[in-house]
């Protein structure tokens, strides 16, 4: 059986953008990503798997939530137009509090730490 571009999942471009956004914010990688995504956005593992494989799209409100929490442009995440950070769009929300990509990634990683590990990291970084 010959493979054609029609074999590509319907929403493969969205899946690629979603994975990019999740990578950028420090989300779990590999097989753990499906479980982490399903827990974080309170959806079934099957739904998370379909998003990541490009087999389906999140509903509008969920897409807005993902874009906001992952600090990427909704326009870019949903359509691929514009840039990941929304620069160059004429209508957009103000830029988030993190201008530096490393700072944004660090904040994403910090959000996922259990409270006890967060406190330990704060003590390490700021031993007041």
Describe the structure.
The structure is a single chain. The chain is mainly alpha-helical. The protein folds into 2 domains: 1-86, Orthogonal Bundle (434 Repressor (Amino-terminal Domain)), CATH 1.10.260; 97-128. Helices cover 55% and strands 0% of the residues. The chain has 7 helices and no strands. The model has no long low-confidence stretch (mean pLDDT 82).
List the keywords.
434 Repressor (Amino-terminal Domain), 2 domains, mainly alpha, single chain, globular, 128 residues, 55% helix
Secondary-structure topology with pairs:
Layout: H1 12-24, H2 32-40, H3 45-53, H4 60-70, H5 74-79, H6 101-112, H7 115-125
Going by CATH, the architecture of the largest domain would be Orthogonal Bundle
N- to C-terminal distance: 66 Å
How many domains make up the 3D coordinates? 2
Based on helices, strands and strand pairing, what is the structural class? Answer: mainly alpha
Task: Give the fraction of residues assigned to helices.
Answer: 55-70%
The DSSP helix count reads 7
The average pLDDT value, as a whole number, equals 82
The coarse overall form would be: globular
Please count the beta strands (DSSP E, at least 2 residues each).
Answer: 0
Strand content: under 5%
Named CATH topology of the largest domain: 434 Repressor (Amino-terminal Domain)
Q: Can you identify the CATH class of the largest domain?
A: Mainly Alpha
CATH homologous superfamily heading of the largest domain:
lambda repressor-like DNA-binding domains
Major pleated sheet:
none
Unreliable runs, pLDDT <50, ≥5 residues?
A: none
Encode the helix/strand succession as letters.
Answer: HHHHHHH
How big is the Rg?
17 Å
